[in-house]
Amino acid sequence: MSLAPHTYSHAQATTEDSPVPFELDSPYQISKVVGEFYSVYYHHQHKLPTVRARFQNVYGPGEILGAGRWRGTPATVWRNVTPTFIYRALKQLPLKVENQGLASRDFIYVEDIARGLMRCATDGKPGDVYNLASGVETSILDLATLINQLTDNPATIEFLPARPWDRSGKRFGSPEKAKREIGFQAHVSLYDGLAKTVEWTRKNLPSIDRCIQKHDSKMKIFV
After folding, report:
1. DSSP state, residue 71
2. What is the longest distance spanned by two Cα atoms in the chain?
3. Nearest-angstrom CA–CA distance, 4 and 170
4. The pTM is what?
5. CA 35 from chain center: how many Å?
6. Which residue has the higher pLDDT, 2 or 189?
7. Terminal Cα-to-Cα distance of the chain (whole angstroms)
8. CA–CA separation, 157 vs 149, rounded Å?
9. Helices 190-203 and 140-151: crossing angle, nearest 10°?
């Protein structure tokens, strides 16, 4: 999970003790904050040795658009930016970028996240919190451009208006505490991680197509 202040100006790396905004934009964001509250409560009140891991934007092979019984709406089938962009790029469709692609995120490869979680479990201090982050800020426009290059997508980027409710803005995580205290550091670059994910997605397009086609009547407005 990632908790960061809202900004569209210059982003500072979010540390574990950075202020957390309470004016949130979605139940998803709220659930992340509440999850941390429960973790802290059970550690202090019941001595449960919880360690909190704050994910940045995880991507990588194995994520299938539309998967899961509750993933039946357009918002959930196309739920994450990286697999959505890669799928559309391989289909030679335009990548839809909102608000000129100004928003930025910290993209971290799934294998790095797995290693980070093992570090949290074996070396993390009970009750503490660690960012699992690459420490690299990437704009959504740069992400779309790189994916189009890796897939040789001839379609142009389609720019859409900003979503009126979305104030998530620019953010990326500071990896310094995790590196210092539990010896975790992300190793897979965005280019290499995306290349591996593109290769996996290309090989598994039939399975992804079948999953999306379950919701075909709802998806037509998105193609």
Report:
1. -
2. 57
3. 9
4. 0.88
5. 18
6. 189
7. 30
8. 12
9. 50
